[in-house]
Amino acid sequence: DWPLSRKFGVDTDTALEILEYANNLGLIPYGITFHVGSQCNNLRNWFIAVKLSAELWEKARAKGLKLQMLNIGGGLPVRYNYEALSIEDIAYYVKGLMRKYFPVQPYELQIEPGRGIVGDQGLMITRVIGKATRGEENWIYIDTGVFNGLAEALGGIRYPFYIEREGKLKEWTIGGISCDSMDVVAKNVFLPEPQIGDFLYILSTGAYTTVYASNFNGFPRPEVVPF
């Protein structure tokens, strides 16, 4: 969901030049790192990255550079409220790619699983502080927002929501606590009718939430409570 190549990274020819440049400076070119993009749900990204890395590895070897490490980065996705690749499926697929494209395995293989490990380990507990009907939209306002830990909602992450009520589901827009018009946590969320004061639980908030949080508009960052 978040490609990184527009801002970071180089093509394989430039990477080879960098490795040679480092070697000429007396440094030891140690390895190659790639990243398939955060919250990656497409196995083809790993196919392309491993294949290109193997080509670069062989070009470096032909230049007398003995690389030792391959870092396959992160990108392992969290399910949120849509289906996502499992860590097991990605691991099985990448192992097959490594056997095919790296007949001589790197001495060291690294991975940066990040979101894939911690995403489901967090639960954000918020409280409903207001309700409104604006045109044809039903709004819930909660006591946190995109500036207090839910910044990735602006980039398209759709968190699962839960409220301890039963009844007919209605469609809601969930607004954050600040006066900023961008502070909208989610749209098209189906929940039973909440009441002011109810707790609204936001699931899968273990990754890229509190680390993004600020005290924007004077509202405090969420308190982190280990459990």
Please describe the topology of this protein.
Elements: H1 12-24, E1 31-33, H2 43-62, E2 69-71, H3 87-101, E3 108-110, H4 115-118, E4 124-134, E5 137-142, E6 161-163, E7 169-175, E8 184-192, E9 199-202
Parallel strand pairs: 1-2, 2-3, 5-7
Antiparallel strand pairs: 4-5, 4-9, 6-9, 7-8
Helix pairs in contact: 1-2, 2-3
Description:
- There is one protein chain.
- 29% of the residues are buried.
- The radius of gyration is 22 Å and the shape is elongated.
- The longest helix is centred in the N-terminal third of the chain and has 20 residues, at 43-62.
- It is of the alpha/beta class and 227 residues long.
- The chain starts with 11 loop residues before the first helix and ends in a 25-residue tail after the last strand.
- A hairpin with a 2-residue loop joins strand 4 and strand 5 (137-142).
- The chain has helices spanning 12-24, 43-62, 87-101, 115-118, and strands at residues 31-33, 69-71, 108-110, 124-134, 137-142, 161-163, 169-175, 184-192, 199-202.
- The protein contains 4 helices and 9 strands.
- The protein has a 6-stranded mixed β-sheet with strand order 6-9-4-5-7-8, with no helix packed on it. It has a 3-stranded parallel β-sheet with strand order 1-2-3, with no helix packed on it.
- It has 2 domains: 12-118, TIM Barrel (Alpha-Beta Barrel); 124-218, Lyase, Ornithine Decarboxylase, Chain A, domain 1 (Beta Barrel), CATH 2.40.37.10.
